[in-house]
């Protein structure tokens, strides 16, 4: 597949990100599928680290996901490692897939002097081809002994069809000193996360008990990674892992500056995935309010965000609000046509079941030319609210997924 | 919007279809939105007709749908009429929408000497613009008194973005003489029917009690119109109406030649809608078997049929079966990766959770070049089976929905 141009919605460059104490990064070229680029990333975590994670709920999830699921509840605080290879998803690979995971985790455990239950792997890339585990294990010695990698190196090594490397970070000052949070993610297609999206790794040097960390991560995943969609298709490999190395200040609350910063990092990473949506030219926030409850709000928001007709209208810069009404109608959310209120950015589009008298088509058309859009729908029925993020559906998506052979 | 070229999946021409005793057709140019073409269709039904129907379950369904729903349970056998206008959907038009329906039904009832409760209207076209009811009622006199129209005339008058007129028919010989069944349909985008698809009208001269007719129509709609998808978007106007004029032989069973023929007409019409799917170049049958139950089979079949990544792979003639595995995995159907068996036409693709040893990529690639494809997935868990039909997702879909402004 030809190298794709960088998404027009990409940030100007990879952000400057702080070191997180207790985290060491390394990358290597294993040649799993790609050549002349790094394709393996190792993050080694200091003893004392607590881990949390959420994974795809796909019924056909990949072998590394199944392995991580059995390990993530581990309450121990030994050292740990995250290992990722790009180019091959080790999904739908049968018993051979499990064997490849075991081969990799056992070899890395031996290399690092850790128990295999503290090794968490992920594989991303083509589905259905056996993973050549030997190519991955062959680079373990150089990963362990070689130079440290930067956040950008790590983010780049896990990419597949991504057009840019993705990272986000925050630093919180506390009376006990600073806490650093840094994360990387990959993903641009097959994005409609069921528990997490594609691959995302977040690190902090805060000290935080595993149950508390897991609670926060699960809650924030629901409103960040699980609130984005590129194409409504859910990956077999979605993995979000969060590590707290415990070297810095202690966190004991799900509220406050740490929680806000962790949420912000996760949201930023989720947004970056949408900004790299295959073929995307518009970044779209879909805000639903006034639903009977949150599940209904989420149904309506994702129905809008996933609708091919809404997404092609956005691509065509067409303020075709009838398609938004259609999407709400099909969503399964309780809705009353005559209580709907729709806004396009600041412009009132429709209310009381019909076009707003004040709406001017030329204002809507001008707004649609923006690269970042907000579509708001108030269902007028209750307190349920949910915000989702999506991109438009363009010829670029078809070109990436149909014109090139995988 | 520019006139679109006829779908490459269209039949060679409109079929020869029999007259159905007790049905009179008429068409007119009302200029609701389009010019220089017919845009109103009237079907008048003889006294003694029984009616059945299914309608979209959209929460934002259009005013004519809401009106039909209140009337369809009527057990009387007076004459009746179906009236359709194309170009304006009278959807999300508030109170004005209901008033337009009342104006049209009252005027047509007076013109035909029927009670308003026996007038069933449908409107298809743009959403959110007030329907100019006066333009529709202005043609009632010429519809009532003018020449009879053919099935092809009627099918053409109800089209919007369709690239060809759609009709299907069957004739059954019985000891009491022949029964004729003929139907017309429209639709090519916003196709993921929730109860019926877009607009379809089926007529027979059989004599059949309303409850029996409704039972058959609802059952067959579930496995015909509700088993197709073009773009996963559900119309606000989906309407299927079936009339039995009672002039011919009596039908008293949901089994037998009449039921088979009614099913065949409904299935043929549903297939024609897929063959006119926006941008379609491939007609795809998705067969799921071995599911725990029928709802699971339907979930898996529609997840495959709706997946943008599966549909773009088909457009690209890429036997990318990993995307089928992904779609089953995300569908919510109970599935076990290691019991899945996949076929591409006659070719065994995958079994036991991995690629089949006998599969040859070049055979799969050659099969994908066909215009008509069958994808089969056996989940290996139970007796549940469902077949869905879809088309590919191409640049043509984007062009129709994004490049042109509606």
Structure characterization notes:
2 copies of one chain form a homodimer. Chain A is 31% helix and 25% strand. The longest helix of chain A has 19 residues, at 94-112. In chain A, α2 (94-112) links the parallel β4 and β5. In chain A, the strands form 3 sheets. Chain A has a 7-stranded mixed β-sheet, sandwiched between helices. Chain A is globular and about 70 Å long. Chain A contains 12 helices and 16 strands. Chain A has 406 residues and is an alpha+beta fold. Chain A starts with 22 loop residues before the first strand and ends with a helix. The interface between A and B is large, with 72 and 71 residues.
Shape of chain A: globular
Oligomer: homodimer
Decide which structural class fits the backbone of chain A.
alpha+beta
Greatest interface: A-B, 72 and 71 residues
Classify the beta-strand content of chain A into a percent band. Answer: 25-35%
Ranges of chain A where pLDDT stays below 50 over 5 or more residues in a row are none
Helix content of chain A: 25-40%
Number of helices of chain A: 12
Largest sheet report of chain A:
7 strands, mixed
For the terminal residues of chain A, how far apart are their CA atoms?
Answer: 7 Å
Nearest-integer average pLDDT of chain A: 90
Radius of gyration of chain A: 22 Å
Arrangement of strands in the largest sheet of chain A = 9-16-11-15-12-13-14
Total beta strand runs of chain A: 16
Question: How do the helices and strands follow one another from N- to C-terminus of chain A?
Answer: EEEHEHEHHHEEEHEEHEHHHEEEHEEH
